[in-house]
Amino acid sequence: MNKPPLVLHICCAPDEAWVVNTLEKHYNLFCFFCNPNISPQKEYQFRLQEAQTVANRFNVPFFSDPYQPDSWEKAIEGFENTPEGGERCKRCFLLRLGRTAEFCRKMNLPSFTTVMSISPHKKISLLNETGKIAASNYDVNYECFDFKKKERISAKYHFKQKTRPLSTGLLRMQTQYGRKRSAKKKTTGEPLEKIRSWLKHFALESACLSGVSDYFYQKVIMVPKTEAP
Predict the structure, then answer these.
(1) Cα separation of 12 and 18, whole Å?
(2) Sorting pLDDT into bands at 50, 70 and 90, what band is 165?
């Protein structure tokens, strides 16, 4: 079957695994990792390596944007303290999806989308709006997907949200926001054996359990390594 090409903007490895598994039968996929909002660089490298591991497992071409955190700081300047889902998020999406659209244009690939819609805290309307703006700037297409809604991903697997600061300047805000969210709704995980079954389905079990990073392990199976059998 002649599958149409589609670039996936990747924010993290667990979300990448689900979306690649969901779309690979219908599209010829290309993964593009672009996240200048991640800090420090050591954490960025962890997430980049894990995203590369996922792409390798699925035999999907993987590309990454140069790490330029200053571009993100400049993009959100003046909106550092705005709430999630507001102007700061919009500017962040425009930057990352804009770089993805530019990558499409350079590679002569017609369409892209993002895996970020998995997050229950990302507004799909805002993602679609910024994705279409970014696409129009480079004469490519943005494909609208809402993975959490169509597949009920968050309800079924209860992905743990990122807890590390995405920028040094936002440490205090992220910490306060995380505490408020935890107090508002306590999230429980699936039984460990169910999570492992899911990981094995994606051929990622060995990657997660071998310790590619604390972040990836805790986000996916939701227990510290010391508690794992």
Answers:
(1) 11
(2) very low
In sequence order, the 6+-apart residues with CB closer than 8 A to the CB of 48 are 33, 64
User: So where are the chain's domains?
Assistant: 5-184
Contact 218, 163 (CB under 8 A): no
Residue with tokens 């993964």: 31
Residue spans of alpha helices (H) in 59-191: 69-75, 87-107, 124-137, 147-151, 153-157, 171-184
pLDDT, tens digit, 9 for 90 and up, residues 57-104: 999 999 999 999 999 999 999 998 888 889 999 999 999 999 999 999
- Give the single-character DSSP code of 225: G
Beta-strand relationship, 111-114 and 141-142:
parallel
* pTM of this structure: 0.69
Query: Are the C-beta atoms of 6 and 24 separated by less than 8 Å?
Result: no
**Class for the domain spanning 5-184:** alpha beta
Task: Name every residue whose Cβ is closer than 8 Å to that of residue 228 and which is 6 or more positions away in sequence.
Answer: 192, 209, 221
Q: What is the DSSP string of 2-61?
A: -PPEEEEEES-HHHHHHHHHHHTTTSEEEEEE--TT--SHHHHHHHHHHHHHHHHHHT--
